[in-house]
Amino acid sequence: MTTQTRATKTLGTLGTTPAMGLGLMGMSALYGPADRDESIATIRAAIDAGIRLLDTGDFYAMGHNEMLLRDALTGVDRDSVDISVKFGALRGPDGGWYGFDARPGAVKTFLAYSLERLGTDHVDVYRPARLDPDVPIEDTVGAIAEMVEAGFVRHIGLSEVGAETIRRAHAVHPISDLQIEYSLVSRGVEGDILDTCRELGIGITAYGVLSRGLISGHYSRDNVQANDFRSHSPRFQGDNLDRNLALVETLRAVAADSGVSVAQAAIAWVASRGDDIVPLVGARTRERLAESLGAVGVELGEEQLAAIEAAMPAGEVAGTRYASEQMAMLDSER
């Protein structure tokens, strides 16, 4: 692959980084079966193309994702990539979800296991996946700060938290970035959360830029596989899906006028929101990665951006981004 991610962004304490990151969740969990060899090839292709930020979670298939990343990084200069790890989700052997644990002792235990699975002596960005309602964020960030001091973590990140939590966390230790869903159809970060991050010099790593494939231009009812959690997502159900896919077709026509694909238009729109916002693409194959990389360097004029927003207004999407019980866990939605 010859495409290079020449453009850069700034993510708080992490500093300058290529303008796109790779999210690895779908290579192990939640979107149905993935091809191991293709996943590893895709990670390596992303690195070859200049991507540095690789995002995983210790609960993605109970450690499978971290071990997959370890294998993909065999022979790769460790200092050429930044590994971002989310922690705290509690899961059972049946794959069930049992809440979150961000107590200081749990933070350090989770980190120890991640370092072993990843085969590395440090994590570049370590972040709680969600706010633990039973643990003050100061305690959680304080524990990670101790790991920074010990050299096991380089930077501290947050995920899906609101402005007040961001301020409290940042008062304990500088925060590199907030990972939060941000797309044409998920724009809750705009306003207090984004304003607070910019005031404090905290970057944004935007996941879900294609709304889990919904606005990729490739999704249809036939795409759902066994164990695909999207079948439980309101945006992918019944009449909601029909309405949302109709919006995608409107966007397709606008994207074509700009000479880009639907996915490229959606990614480029997120990237256009600021020099402190890095889209995380969840490409599971080299083909989808190549398409996503094509969005880097795409410069959309104000008229084009306005046409994209008019084709897919945030308020027109049908259904919430998570099921109700999961939405209730999001500090960012309070």
From TrEMBL:
The NADP-dependent oxidoreductase domain, residue ranges: 20-311
UniProt keyword terms in alphabetical order: Oxidoreductase
GO molecular function annotations of the record: oxidoreductase activity
Keyword Lyase: no
GO cellular component entries: cytoplasm
Top-level taxonomic group: Bacteria
Cited InterPro entries: Aldo-Keto_reductase, NAD(P)_OxRdtase_dom_sf, NADP_OxRdtase_dom
Pfam family, one: Aldo_ket_red
Signal sequence bounds: none
Gene3D superfamilies xrefs: NADP-dependent oxidoreductase domain (3.20.20.100)
Name of this protein: Aldo/keto reductase
Species annotation: Aeromicrobium yanjiei
Highest classification ranks of the organism: Bacteria, Bacillati, Actinomycetota, Actinomycetes, Propionibacteriales
